[in-house]
Amino acid sequence: MAFLEVKDLEVYYGKACAISNVSFSIDEGKCVGIIGSNGAGKTTLLDSILGITNWRGEIIFNGNSLRKLPPREIVKRKVGYAPERGSIFPGMSVKDNLLVGAYLNRSNIDKNLANVFELFPRLEERQGQQADTLSGGERQMLALGRAFMLEPKLVMLDEPTLGLAPIVIGHISEAVKSLKKTGFTILIAEQNASFTIEHAEMIHILERGAITASGTAEELGKEEYIREAYFGT
Q1: 182: confidence class by pLDDT, cuts 50, 70, 90
Q2: CA distance readout (Å), 124 to 107, 114, 117, 229
Q3: What percentage of residues in the chain have a pLDDT greater than 90?
Q4: CATH of the structural domain 4-231, one choice from 3.30.420.40, 3.40.50.300, 3.40.190.10, 3.10.20.30
Q5: pLDDT tier at 58 (50, 70, 90 boundaries)?
Q6: Per-residue DSSP letter, 39
Q7: What residue spans define the domains of the chain?
Q8: Does the pLDDT of residue 83 top 90, yes or no?
């Protein structure tokens, strides 16, 4: 059985369909990428897994249905979520932002904090600094670090490279590689195809709320329209 299985997912905002019959799965310890343009439904998909939307279909995580569970209960099951644009608590210090991520996982706080600082030394340097003084890249590192404080079994990353300089994207990439080496299960939603290709074993193309193609980067690269639209020629 897959570690995460999404079956026939549908999400409506009023009469507007945001997600239509989306199905995919992730095996434990693997990385799967969702590639799509702005407005394709990537954030809605991740929000649904976390229980933030009203969805139809089925979402099964670690053998258990997530139907009708509130976000707090889903997070308790060790689903970590780093939303796009580095969503943080701006008036709190870097360290306090990270500790917020441990509010449902009070064990191993010191160890997890040390792991986050190892992944992102910049956060350790700025741990006493107020979060709203951080750069965009540092805020994204903080959002990721906060998700890792949960010791998640599944990590969901929404546009982790959005608006970041290449050198910062490199730091984020190294963090993802480290997570993969330690056996994390990862779901990446991205417009940045090259970043996703670098890390994901399986990729799904999301267009207007529906998955239109799936496969490895090599398989998808054989399709001319996908290669031109997402991978470049």
Answers
A1: confident
A2: 20, 9, 5, 39
A3: 66
A4: 3.40.50.300
A5: very high
A6: T
A7: 4-231
A8: no
